[in-house]
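WARN retry 2 of 3 for item q-0093 after timeout on previous attempt; input resubmitted unchanged.
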Amino acid sequence: MIPVLKYKWPDPDSNASLAHTFQDSTEKFGDRPFVYFEDETWTYSEANKAANSFARYLVESGVQHGDRVVLFMENRPYYVISLLALNKIGAIGVLINTSLTGDPLIHCINSSDSTKCIVGAERAKPLEDVLDQINISNKDDLLWVADNKDYEQPDWATDLKNNLDFNDNENLEETNLVTSKDTACYIFTSGTTGVPKAAVLPNRKLIAAAVNITKAGYRINHEDCMYNCLPLYHSTGLMLGLCGAIHVGASSFIKRKFSASSFWADAHKYNTTAFVYIGELCRYLDNQEPSEAEKNNPIKSMVGNGLRPDVWDSFKDRFDVDRIIEIYGASEGNALFMNLFNKNKTIGMTSADVALLEYDVAEDEILKDAEGYCKKISNHEPGLLAIEIGPNAVFNGYTDKEASEKKILRNVFKDGDAWFNTGDLIKTVDVGFAFGKEHYQFVDRVGDTFRWRSENVSTNEVGEILNGYADVNMSNVYGVAVPGCEGRAGMAAFSLEDADNFNWTAFSEHVENNLPKYARPVFIRIIKEMDTTGTFKLKKNELRDESFDLNKVNDMIYCLKPSSNTYELLDQQWLEKINSCEAGY
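OK item q-0093 returned
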């Protein structure tokens, strides 16, 4: 029997927690490396003692079970130690995106109702800029953690390390009160639409993910080392990466940020046999010139999400990776899909009860039958993925109850039922059944499919074609309104290393040869740098709002005129024709 289909979530009242899992691994593998970072190596025992000292300090300073504490720090050992210390006393880590400044940072801190803030020296300046607007102002509650680099301690914060008693490092009695149902942390959504929302992650979700991922995904043990360059404030780096490694007592090589140029050298240096990924990282690596360092690399298995079909085969073959285990899920979601049979280009299957609902892309709404219930997709066409909420598919939602309710579909197939609305279009793929379960493939985020010329256009599929052109590294595709036209025209934004010498004729031929006419982007915007979230999701809202308006955009914009197959520079004269509905689109 496959573990991911057999495994049940931990009993809510059990001691299945991140803290207990870490302490168990420390007992078994205390002298083995736990974290590699820059010039540091921490064993499980060393990290456990430091976390215990920190946890005891938090208790003595008034932090109680269930209190919320902000963690605002880049990937480094003390981030991990801080997270473990909080979990050991049942406190909730409020994990803040390290790229946040200003109003979004204020919102995340204040909405969490936290009692203290642990801030890395490298992120002290953005916090200082908003000190007078956040609800944590006491110096004793602002815990500053020194970095390897030279930063001066601010006078508004307490130097954490100077206040720890590293001799008081035994496991805490308070940890015995930490349970599976306790909230381990808040993880914020990327904020690509509206302000970031805090997803609630209980211990049982962290542990369930760690068990499934290590047994059915990576298939690693305590002798392995995981390459983790993803932000630990996000569920992929934390749950699929760090928690998975802790569960089996493996080592983790962590980095502050991803670097394509040093990736393979790092992999060899630390003998990283596993890799936790986001799809775009794989694209960056695949776009690098071949190097000696990539040959005979140690990576044998990888788990992550967002690896697009146009990169999958190339990456797997070029770098000789045995297992690519694509997963699908969300921080706030109630189910996990996993490609545990190592099929190509699929997110695999799930043990949860799911349904693909008929969805009208043009009207952006779920289709209903005569009785008002939703209709299921009956073939391999894309449908809106809904996951039934139940005992083994618990929906923890957000801290904001109103936002949580908006993600629930009620009375879907019968009165009283409740389903989690993923907001994603998924389709089944014909790669065979296993245990009566179908395999699935991610298609698009709702809103990432638009309608043009009476046809549905997938931004991901168009993006894959554009990215297949040699000089296009990563394209961001979206739909824009055109005066006098139904639906939305395709528009793509990407950066170029040498825009002056870009061959528009060859690129136009590539588009014409590989995309049907309705799917060809009408507009191309050349941007200086791709704007992404901390987890490499493409930001579209601002690009979509600015559209092709030359009065709002300073970048060069090219367009396909109805009578031409070659992209031309958009000028004010043609823009006026478009806006007056005289362009012929």
